[in-house]
Every structure is written in C-alpha cells, then in structure tokens.
Design a protein that fits this description.
With 89 residues, this protein is an alpha+beta fold. 53% of the residues lie in helices and 13% in strands. The longest helix has 22 residues, at 49-70.
Length: 89
C-alpha cells in the first residue's frame, strides 16, 4: 500500500511540475490555447482560460498513461522522473 501511495505522489508531482511549464495564449478568434512544450503533442483549446487549463491537465494525464502503457520514456521534468516508476511496475 505504501508503494502505491509513493507512485501516486510521484505522478501528482510530475503533473504539477509539467503544468508549471504550460504556456497560454489567446487565439485570433478569442479562444485560449495552452500547451506544455516539454511534452510533445500535449495541448488544448477552450473558450476560457480555466477550461483550457482543465483540458490541458486531462490531456497531459492521458498522454502519461499512454506513454507508460507503450513503454515509452517520459521527459524528466524538474528532476521528477516517472521512468523510474515504470521500471518498477
């Protein structure tokens, strides 16, 4: 049980650190576009900044799960390395 808690804590930390690298801009049509440059292909677009952030986090979570299922390595973000977790799973 302690190991599961540690994995959850590492995942939460990884997501939080990745979100700190998110960039947002307002598009020509007034929508918000967000991306996390360190995580290729992770982006969102929404009518409000709050919704854009929510969607970006969801896309990031799905991107992490897919990469782990495929055995792909994830970028180390601010010294947080989920690849170590995947090796022990």
């Amino acid at each position: 049980m302690a190991e599961a808690h540690t994995v959850y804590a590492m995942l939460s930390t990884y997501i939080a650190r990745a979100m700190e690298h998110a960039t947002y801009e307002i598009t020509e049509d007034g929508r918000y576009f967000g991306s996390i440059p360190i995580t290729p292909g992770v982006w969102s677009e929404a009518e409000s900044l709050e919704k854009c952030r929510e969607e970006l986090r969801e896309v990031l979570e799905e991107w992490i799960v897919l990469a782990l299922k495929r055995g792909e390595s994830l970028p180390v973000i601010d010294a947080c390395d989920l690849n170590l977790v995947a090796q022990h799973a």
